[in-house]
Structures are given as structure tokens and as C-alpha cells.
Amino acid sequence: INTLTWTVTSAAEGCTDSDDMIVTNNQITADAGDDQTTCDNFYTPLDGNDVSGVGGTGLWSAAGGITFVDATDYDTRVDNLAQGINTLTWTVTSAAEGCTDNDQVVITSNAAASNAGGSFETCDATINLSAVAPANGSGVWTQTNGPGGATIVDPLDRETQVTGLVSGVYEFTWTVTNNGCPASSTVTVTN
Fold first, then answer.
1. Dihedral sign from CA coordinates of 173, 174, 178, 179
2. Nearest to 191 by CA among 170, 160, 172, 177
3. Which pLDDT value is given to residue 95?
4. pTM score, two decimals?
């Protein structure tokens, strides 16, 4: 609150009169917090500033299918993040005069996805695995169960050949890692 005084003085008679004007600055400032990185398709808690103490309200928004548990809560959870960069906007409004401000935060989702393909049966000592190519990141095959002696010819090839199978049930795991974020899935091969 600022008080301004306007004073008028008559030069001829020396009379003075004044009037005060009160100026209230209802400016409000938004702070969406620091940019973040996650291995998931969600992030919690967001770190917008709480403006309720100054009579303000806030609202989170974003493009695409991103959703918020409570878009009016400064530290809510955000869901349905897309792979990569997601820009969220925190808009705050003052109760008096409706002054607004907004700030953006970037949440980068490095969530990995893994699909090892369908399980199958074979009578052969040599097979080809067939994982779905990762949209982001890289994958590696490992044998996680079954008789010993099987050889994964190229563990980094999603469609690698496996040799040396004998009678039994095998599990091969396709682990995809994207910027340090892993995801795994398993295929069962019965020989």
C-alpha cells in the first residue's frame, strides 16, 4: 500500500489544501519451481508457490493428455507425462483486482518401455528372440531362468539368435534403459 499526497497552494492567498490517494499494488508472482527429471510417467510433488497466504489462487495447466490430481494445489501430482519434455504452467491470480502471473516448469520423463515379445514353444536348439524396438533408450537380453548352456548371440540385438537350447523352460528378459531409467519384460520359451 502506497499513500500519495497531492498538495495545492494558492500563491496569492497562501492557502494550502491537500488530498491523499491510496494505491494498492495487487501484483502477484508465480513460481512453478525448478525443472525436474523422472523415470516415470508421473511426478509428485510439484513445487509451485503457495499464494493462498496473500489471498491468491493458482491453477496448473499443460497441453496434451497430462492430468493433475488437483490442478488448484501448488504441490499436486501430475500424471500421464509424455516421453521426453513436458512443459507445465502454474498461473496465479490475486483475489483483489484479479492480477495474474504465470511461470513454467519442465518435467522430463525418461520412462523406458520394454516388450520382450510373446512366449512360444519350439523343438529347435536355435531360436530368434523378437523384442519390440525401444522408442527411446537401448535394450539388452539376459537369460533369467532355465537350463544352462544357452548362448545369446548378440545381447544388444532385439532380434538376436539364441543357440544351445535343450529340453526345458527358459526365460529371457529384455531390459531397456533410457537415460538411467530401466524397464524389463520377459519372454518364456519352452523347448
1. positive
2. 170
3. 85
4. 0.73
